[in-house]
Amino acid sequence: MAGTGTRLDGKVALVTGAASGVGRATAKIFAAEGAKVVGTDIDDVNGAALVDEIKADGGEAIYVHANVRNYDDLVAAVAAAEETFGRLDICIANAGTVGGNAVGRPMEDLSEEQWVTIVDINLHGVYRTFRAAIPALRRAGGGAFSSTASIAGLTGVAGQSAYSASKGGIIALVRSLAYQLAGDHIRVNCVCPGGINTNLLAETDLMAILMAQAADGPPMGAPVEAAPGADPVALMNQAADPEDIANAHLYLVSDEARMVNGQSLVVDAGSMVANMWLVVPRDQ
Ligand SMILES: NC(=O)c1ccc[n+]([C@@H]2O[C@H](COP(=O)([O-])OP(=O)(O)OC[C@H]3O[C@@H](n4cnc5c(N)ncnc54)[C@H](O)[C@@H]3O)[C@@H](O)[C@H]2O)c1
Fold it and tell me: 12-204+241-272 belongs to which homologous superfamily?
């Protein structure tokens, strides 16, 4: 796959949550576009496998264990990027969680520990990642940040209070940081996906829970019977592939997006503007 594009030639990119799903697809697409990739995660087995795949395809990558709950891990990952590849230009704060059995529960039924854990991984994890990387991007003379937020940070989703709050926090952080770092030639954006076919959906049975809550038909991301191809209406009812989100990150960190800063790019086939989440009853 390496060598299929040149959009990130000469760049070094760090990706958190790179062992699976969106992070994995982003690392692979970035490598195929010429970037040297530093994949980080807490899943060391699949992180190492990712690096093997990128190298087998002719790309360059290393894996560094980094829990986004631990600032020192992220500082060490940034240092590894500079030691191995000489610089860091791009950083994707992607790692996140829906919080296991927190999904679908009313806010008052979550323990404080559950709430804090979700917000700590999803929002504070992005803060720690960006904070650790800012000095390196300054040393590189500028660069680009992106993060994987969610449409849950833009619209109401019953049973996902902590998750929604954490993702809304990323969207606000991105706006403020874009303003703060513009003078350093660093752009800051995020992607807001709808449903994506990854472990995160499968492990928590999130879609089944949301469908069970739906009063008036399936919510965005529900499986459809026939392969929808590129039919825009059918796609509204279908979860995205991880590569759909990875390509949005690719655009946001590439020079093609030089005029895009502080933005939240929704990638959901239009399901949010069609109000497909709002079928969830308010008392759930
Ligand atoms: N799947 C969806 O429907 C969906 C929708 C919108 C947004 N998102 C967001 O996309 C991002 C990626 O999720 P995904 O769907 O690819 O899920 P995934 O479960 O396939 O991948 C998440 C990765 O993050 C890693 N991770 C979890 N906690 C971590 C921690 N503390 N430190 C470092 N790594 C950690 C996991 O090990 C895993 O490799 C998340 O931020 C998620 O909230 C997902």
Answer: NAD(P)-binding Rossmann-like Domain (3.40.50.720)
